[in-house]
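Friendly challenge for the regulars: who can give me the structure tokens for this chain first? No prize, just bragging rights.
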Amino acid sequence: MSQANRVGKQNARERVAAEKLRQKRAERRRRQLTIGGAVVAVIVVAGSIGIAVSASKHNSSAYLAPAAAVVDPQAKSSKDLGIHVGSADAPVKLVIFEDFRCPVCQSIEQAVEPTYRQYVEDGKVQIIYHPARLIDSNNNGTGSLNGANAVACAQDEGQFLPLHDLLYANQPDEKTDGYGNKATILSIANQIPALKSSPTFAGCVNSGKHDGWVQANADNFNKLRLPGTPTMFVDGQELKFAQNTPDAVLTYFKQQVDAAFTKAGGKAGAKATLPAAPASSPSAPGSSAPSAPSASGSSTGAPSSPAPSSSGSGTSSTPATPSSSKS
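First reply, four minutes later:
Bragging rights claimed.
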């Protein structure tokens, strides 16, 4: 075979090999584009579902804070998310994140509230409350939202604390969502003369006037990654309720507040006059009487189990090991 023929055959083989390599690369690119397009489509669909789920669990009402709401440095937000009670110059600041469907909130609140109420009146303590809707998402319903909106409406009428206390005194079973019925809340509020005679209060409750503010508190709760409800801070230090009786809870609470008062110099601010505490006898259908936090952490048995959600879930915390409450 001549040198020219050998070169020609070699060139032909090289051309065939080059063409096969080109085709293989083209096929690989085609497959990558097809797979990539499918992945993008899945991401888009999944993202749409995530947004839909989030939107379905997120209240879209406009943000409207109740009267005299305050910015709370503990909340790390520029919004007026807190309801302030007490004298502004009281040396100890108590911050409370709560949910009116939370049975452990009820137990701890009713164990310590008479004491911190006296501290507030004596000018030792000021309080900032953050009512939020946490259990609604986990156990379904709207009772947390309705209860928090109602106390914000009561704040507009200067009656925050009386309704706050009555909602805990008449708290329905956590899983029945008794406060999902706004008529139930209004019947409880009728025990407070100033609210019973106020058509603006009833309109505020029924319209969900402050629902957006409640949701802002819930969103901020999630942003702060707080452990559960209730979460309480005394001068920035989170309280750890690991006690199983009301007396033990109260003793621990007093120790923490008294220590903070001493650390702050032991000088009280101006005395505060609070609305009279309402009668605490349950009057709402299905309401539960308060009891001591149990070893399992709930005053009514096992605590609600958290449920993950793109917009959060809701549950009450146990005194010993607070569970995540997201909304």
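Residues 3-57 form the longest helix (55 residues). The chain is about 50% helix and 10% strand. Your move, everyone else.
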